[in-house]
Amino acid sequence: MSAVSRSAGLAAAVGRAQAVQPSVPLAGVAGVAVGGILIEGLRKVYGRGDTAVEALKSVNMLVHPGEVVGLVGPSGSGKSTLLKCLGAIIEPTAGRMQLGSEWIYDDGWLVRDLRALRRDRIGFVFQAPYLIPFLNVTDNVALLPMLAGMANTRARDRALELLTALDVAHRAAARPSQLSGGEQQRVSIARALANRPPVILADEPTAPLDSERALAVVRILHRMAREAQTAIIVVTHDEKIIPTFKRIYHIRDGQTHEEAGQGVPVE
Ligand SMILES: Nc1ncnc2c1ncn2[C@@H]1O[C@H](COP(=O)(O)OP(=O)(O)OP(=O)(O)O)[C@@H](O)[C@H]1O
Ligand SMILES: [Mg+2]
After folding, report:
1. Are 59 and 79 in contact (CB under 8 A)?
2. Which ligand does the CA of 48 lie closest to?
3. pLDDT at 29 over 80
4. CA of 128 to the centre of ligand 1 (A)
5. Which of 138, 164, 172, 247 is the most exposed place for a label (fewest CB within 10 A)?
6. Backbone φ, ψ for residue 23 (5° rounding)
């Protein structure tokens, strides 16, 4: 497939994903363009009373469509908590979040079907890759496009395209338990990209990878951002990939601070 037709296909897929979600506009608030992420005053407290942990105090963040931003901070600073809130995996305590032109959270969820939100609009690369053990590698990646209604052969073709880009196509027929940790991580990255979601949240995606493969992952994320106008947040400690971000958010004591990155091209 040519780059042009792939872009058109990606744009159409993103458009469809946006179209199925009812919009909940809030009067008087400037929205971000389709595909972007906006977070304002996000707070997350785990537990109650004496054992409560305030993981996020007040997080503000903006990611434009087509942008890949880094999120860095010490262990326990709230990086995974932030991604899980934004990915509708856990419920924040307070604040506001916007995906595309839609507010999804304002001191409470504004979206009724959180499962559909996660499936259609967010690609999540978890810190520990979890793959479905009884499906082979190809079907682990092809599953979400199939669930979204794509023909099985097309979904498997797309899976193989991504597995090839991530240098793991030779393990396409294997079960996850037969893969190395780095191979499992690359398959889980392919799976997060398979539905071409408008938002990708990646938690330490390159941690188990050597530098060449880490850069291949970053290359595919930057390409995805550029071609499909995806908004991408990458949590990382990886010194090999930090210079590739144009903007970086630092998180410390549950608060974010923005900083310019080097934006070194990866292609
Ligand atoms: N389910 C939970 N219940 C209670 N506290 C939690 C829970 N999950 C995380 N925390 C606490 O919230 C804080 C932030 O955790 P989080 O996992 O977001 O950190 P992180 O920045 O991702 O760290 P790391 O770099 O080690 O992955 C930590 O103090 C952690 O112990
Ligand atoms: Mg974490």
Report:
1. no
2. 1
3. no
4. 14
5. 164
6. -90, 140
